[in-house]
User: Fold this.
Amino acid sequence: MEAFSSGDNATLQQLYARDCVAHLPGNHPLAGEHKGHDAVADTARRMREETNGTMRIEPQQLFHDGRGHVIALRRMTAERKGRRHDAVGAVHFTIIGDRIAAIEVYEQDLDQANQFWS
Assistant:
């Protein structure tokens, strides 16, 4: 999450599997399924650009099952087009080997997320 927030693409490249899939909920332009390392990295880049680098993701709690699944409760703050976003959500990671194979994002207030990213 730190590498995502800071735009540390070198670290993200090492963390994502080549066939990584990320799903962002909602009906805004960044929502949907992003398949492949390049698509996932590009979505992260677009989110940072859209927020002029103000987006920060802070993990609040982490849960793991010891079988390659991690759920992170997180707080995301960002500014975009004169609006401030401060939201709680969760991210479910599937890890295979030492790489992130899948990312599923959940929003506590999906309407708020849609409004911010639209």
